[in-house]
User: What shape does this take?
Amino acid sequence: LQEVLHLMRERKAGAVLVAEREQVMGIVTERDYLYRVALHDRDLETTPVTSVMTASPVTLTPNHSLAFALREMALGRYRHLPIMDDHHRCLGILSAQAILAYVLALFKMHREERQIIETPPDR
Assistant: This one.
């Protein structure tokens, strides 16, 4: 578990996948650490990652829409969902933070486009 937390800190990631022979076994998130380790004062060196991770996490594929991903996150109260290819290999992890950044960028772009349209030309 200590190695997993070190990896999360090193990569500034809110979640790390736990895999065995390229097959995803689970996911460890900041919330998993908080609720399953820190609040119970468990030892990082002796606590197995399998006792902390969420086993067999809900996953997405590149074909899933953002709306589908948001629905899954809301229903399951997830902040991170792995994105898997057709061979069950991980392509990445979609985070609520990344979605928020994307939506904010869309709003900014929309606002800028609107400003351009509404600004009268110089005469």
Notes: The mean pLDDT is 91. The longest strand covers residues 23-29. The chain is about 40% helix and 20% strand. Residues 77 and 121 are 48 Å apart (CA to CA).
